[in-house]
Predict the structure of Aminotransferase class I/classII large domain-containing protein.
Amino acid sequence: MSAASVALPPESSWPAAPRAQLVQPSAPPAKVLTSASMSQALRTMQYAVRGSVVQRAEEIERQLASGEGAALPFDKIVFCNIGNPQAVGQKPITFFRQVLALCDLPAESGVDHPSASLLFPPDAIARAREMRAAMGPGGTGAYSTTQGVSRFREDVASFISRRDGHACEGRNVFLANGASAAIRMVLTATVSSADDAVLVPIPQYPIYSGLLSLLGAHQAGYMLDEAQNWAVTVECLQAAYDDARAAGKCPRACVIINPGNPTGNVLSRDVLETVIAFCVAHRLVLMADEVYQENVHEPGLSFVSARKVAIEMGERARALELFSFHSTSKGLLGECGKRGGYMELHNIDPYVQSQIFKLASSGLCAAVPGQALTSLMVRPPVEGEPSHELYARETADIRQALAERARLLVDGLRAIPGFSCNDASGAMYAFPAVELPPKAVEHARAQGLAPDEVYAVSLLESTGICVVPASGFGQAAGRYGFRTTFLPSTDELRRAVRHIAQHHEAFCQRYA
Amino acid sequence: MSAASVALPPESSWPAAPRAQLVQPSAPPAKVLTSASMSQALRTMQYAVRGSVVQRAEEIERQLASGEGAALPFDKIVFCNIGNPQAVGQKPITFFRQVLALCDLPAESGVDHPSASLLFPPDAIARAREMRAAMGPGGTGAYSTTQGVSRFREDVASFISRRDGHACEGRNVFLANGASAAIRMVLTATVSSADDAVLVPIPQYPIYSGLLSLLGAHQAGYMLDEAQNWAVTVECLQAAYDDARAAGKCPRACVIINPGNPTGNVLSRDVLETVIAFCVAHRLVLMADEVYQENVHEPGLSFVSARKVAIEMGERARALELFSFHSTSKGLLGECGKRGGYMELHNIDPYVQSQIFKLASSGLCAAVPGQALTSLMVRPPVEGEPSHELYARETADIRQALAERARLLVDGLRAIPGFSCNDASGAMYAFPAVELPPKAVEHARAQGLAPDEVYAVSLLESTGICVVPASGFGQAAGRYGFRTTFLPSTDELRRAVRHIAQHHEAFCQRYA
């Protein structure tokens, strides 16, 4: 059965009770390491982006592959749960891959091979020679220094300097296995005890809530205002701060995600000034998650970094301590599998920086191919170089596709009765609110499940579309919904919107 | 000045007091995040393999590069602090790199390019096609599933099954960013509170001590018997266990490193049986760090996995819960920069396994090039394939070089008066004991420094040889020494031994 001919199954075939977790805690402690003896902090940690709905989707995918899933009303899973562009068809940037390949190949089999020019353009060969020299004799096969290859960090510093118009130094750049690893290091260094709190937007990308659980620290969620396109307001920051204080917690840091994940909003300079002034006034370190900085789709909007704003605020923000994060997984490369990324430390105490260095050392270094890709991301081919034209065409195509799909998805979701959805101005997601029938909510609550988890499993099992329940990101009480990427092809997205609409109607009828 | 003509500097030019740390704690807390407010667990963590001696070496290297180091009695740093083979001249395995390059190149620029066969042998092209199919449409550019690409995990499972003669399943294999990341995940899941203890060999590779500090757990060190070639004895295990109990701690797990790092010993089947029986009797999870399993240099010795021994012990070890670790960074590939590796879970509670899965999910996946390399490591070219001859020659050369250098280094160190050194039967290190003059010990203690740290800095600053003080790995009270790799070229190692001998004589005279 082709994906195009998907139909919803009869109501009676829907699952009565989606599982909250695939594996139940072990009963009697026959083993040494059990639910009772293991880390309880890990048990409480949640990470919905790859949570129970996704595990169910992978289970169904295995059934489809083995033929067991023949009775299902779809023939493939459409993974909209994660920003993983190349998994759903986005092509890699050719030049980057050519240079990476030439960095990996032994010289005599690559850059020095007499036939190299038949496979590789001259600027890819030249760049690879330069990067091989920068990596030293061990190349991609050796541990680099802890913070990453010095020249690659200088490339990042030049990029930041150009982007912000304010000089940045390579010694303050740490290359990491994706932004996730960098965020983990910073939170590990920042949080000292269970009394420490970190201000985190709600909704948020769950690496923050997850790591804070694991570290045993307090998450002080500040609400984004959905009615104002997910605005950050000083009132909400203050409320979260005050609540944490009232609970006897000490707020240490504040996280912003710009552009927003899962919310897709782009923070203006004014808002950033507000947040920065708030951090300075309340002595909070700012963590700026800027991994979607290249992903602004809305004409007229543009990304401004927290670093640029802080520097340009002058004396008012002189005291700000800032960690900012970027990644090779998003943007126009979407090279998630390479686990490349960096963080930049702005005005961080040198002793604290030395301790973060020590923590990074214990993991030896970030994967060197990811480091090389980070250098390439911030130093793409420029006009006049042989690969520039192809690079420009490839990135323009990706940029256009993302903008189109953001529009298509948001418009499509808005047209579904019971759905509302802010613009996906940035990032890779739509985050609609969905009105659920009261009976569905009751039914879920009775089983101890989040209503939108029941909804997401129902959507998956009847259409093959895998999204993440909004409850996995946090949201206002009584709101339900999900996060979906807009990364699949335009045709697939159109089909997905149709199936989401059909499923919603059937779901509402079921619980009428 | 060439490295060959290195001479020791006059005694007066030696540093009076090597620094314990390069950066001192920040004085008044002008900043928000300071030595006082940051994670105190991170502050107590130590990681000597990239500690103060190495940071001093990197500082000197920068001086040499900038010309400031012209007065130094050497013209390069010989990094013997870390098992980083390709950084000191070991060549990568050609076939592996060719396949990795073809996995990264877009199909039309690589496997499907009309000139591909001019650069790549047919079996590399065929293998790359197979691996690309296994990775799916996103290839190396997409996040894989949390545990790693299913087919690559099956490759690992087949390798383990062949190695042990007992079937292993891919669902119990987690691919990771090097063994370090896997070890971090297991300790994070295992340790629940400050009352939990983990038995760790002394000396040990400091990722264990470092992570236990960071997790706030108790390290129960069991002494290896240096007089018996670093033997593990049940008496020492029992003593460590009893001490932990007496201190009110609950031992949860036991670590073995086989072959030993930094000790170079290879555990016999008998010893493994003893350790396993001890773990079963005392309800300890076993963590077997087997990253050097391919690095056994001593004729007549061979590696046996803890898993194989446990299975073959039958009923006596039926209850054993075992995590074992392997890596692409060591062995005959030495691909440290790729951060590839895996862990295998044997008889682990399914709920605990699901929680480790969740923890791995929050980091999304291991870098996919490292995953691909792990598959290649366990599935090299076989006889009859076009690349087999080159592969066999390359690996035989590396194997022979490592065996020769291990012998050369150990014999050379043993010949130095005041040095004693067990065989480096396995792994990549010698771990000599060095008799220090009592005055040097007093002098160091007076400054709050480990005597062998003073010694290592002195060696570095007078010869350019960078080793790690033995105190960074733990050792018996009153013992001093260092860990050095035997990875540099034979010529360089001969020179290093001579310089170590000259330095030792001068050091002893200085403190006579």
